[in-house]
Amino acid sequence: MEFARLLLFAWIAATLVSLKLRSAEGRAHHHHHHHHKRGSNKGSPVYQSPARPPPSIPSEPTDPDECENVFDVMTFGAIGDSSTDDTEAFRTAWKAACEVESGVLLAPADYTFTITSTIFSGPCKPGLVFQVDGVLMAPNGPDCWPESDSPRQWLIFYRLDNMTLAGSGIIEGNGEEWWELPCKPHRGPNGTTLPGPCDSPALIRFFMSSNLVVNSLRIQNSPQFHVKFEGCSGILVDKLSISSPALSPNTDGIHIANTKGVGIYNSMIANGDDCVSIGPGCAFVDIENVTCEHSHGISIGSLGGHSSQACVSNITVRNAFIKNSDNGVRIKTWQGGTGSVAGITFEDIQMENVRNCIIIDQYYCFFKGCRNQTSAVYVSDVSYKNIKGTYDVRSPPMHFACSDAVPCTNITLSDVELLPSAGEMVGDPFCWNVYGSLQTLTIPPISCLQDGEPQLVSENINYGC
């Protein structure tokens, strides 16, 4: 176990150091063509202890005045007056920056650039930087969205390695009109939801890419998810500010799926859905010093929908502050799924007026007719340590609802102290088919965890991981 952990840590460290060295080597070469120069548990799946990728990549935006290969979109015909379509200028600048080592596509300060849905694809030379110092803006709502563009995504970064998205500027999603579509939750008459087209674009999507850095930007008002990583590896997110209103539907802050080796640090996220959501196929994710406000908290899932397989392991959340949110730290799975969630640590987390501060929900369902099933995603080896603060008394602060057929095992709690933000303390926390232990007494007291491990648990589980 320890040897495997050391090997993993060494691999992550070597990858990030290699990325840093390649970036430095790239900047040592000057290219002067086409550029504008300017200033266990028995029965559990096998897993390693969580390893945290060291944030050794520089986390400050690039200074264009220090770079030779700066491709300013203004020199490629961009106007930046907030109304002109500057898409073609960005595509041309991207192509030029992509072809040289350590190229920088620059959207300069003091301009507002409107562009339509665009795929920025690779492969590109190492060290590419997409720097937004001005405002980069999506079309204003579905009526302004070109019919030929995908209604599901806006900026797509595809098949890239060793690339940075950074800057001192703003990426604006103009999501208000998308949120008000009648098909969105509770947007129809008298709080109903109406049928009809309901696609809304995710603002920024990284797909099948590796060794990525995203930092120091303000990303706001996305029509749907703000930032997505799918099929990626080696991700560093640092110093992001993500914001949208509390009632903006489906506006997850950062979503990852089928992605491994992720560090999310020092960021502020205020939005209308999951602050950070971790989907199937994710492993070795480290989240630290993140603030979540009026959101649905930090969520693993939902997993196992439509009887699918989901494998999530080695997730660590530390030093988080979650306030005025519907959930705190949550694991949510559908009935009928397979796979496992294992090796999860929630530690040093402050809650303020949060419903469902600690929740495992293996009966996740948002429509009528969901039925109990004989298979489920197996949840095991989850640790909650030093989680303190206040909860909204409309829900118990701790809720463990595990599958009838596949219980949750090795759930441990220590130094958990949760008090009502107003009103009287809710009664006993809720438990169903959950096995674990208390390493210290909790507030409120929890007495419903079952000791040990259920018999024949491994025979009822289809890990598939």
From TrEMBL:
Q: Where is the composition biased (Basic residues)?
A: 28-40
Q: What is its main location?
A: secreted
Where does the record place the catalytic residues? H296
**Pfam families the record matches:** Glyco_hydro_28
InterPro entries with a match to the protein in the record: Glyco_hydro_28, PbH1, Pectin_lyas_fold, Pectin_lyase_fold/virulence
Places the protein is found:
Secreted, Cell wall
Which region is the signal sequence?
1-26
UniProt entry tagged with the keyword Ribonucleoprotein:
no
The annotated region (Disordered) lies at 27-64
The UniProt GO MF terms for this protein read: polygalacturonase activity
GO biological process assignments = carbohydrate metabolic process; cell wall organization
What's in the keyword line of the UniProt record?
Cell wall, Cell wall biogenesis/degradation, Glycosidase, Hydrolase, Secreted, Signal
Q: Record's family?
A: Belongs to the glycosyl hydrolase 28 family.
In terms of PANTHER family, this protein maps to: PTHR31375
The name this protein carries in UniProt is: Polygalacturonase
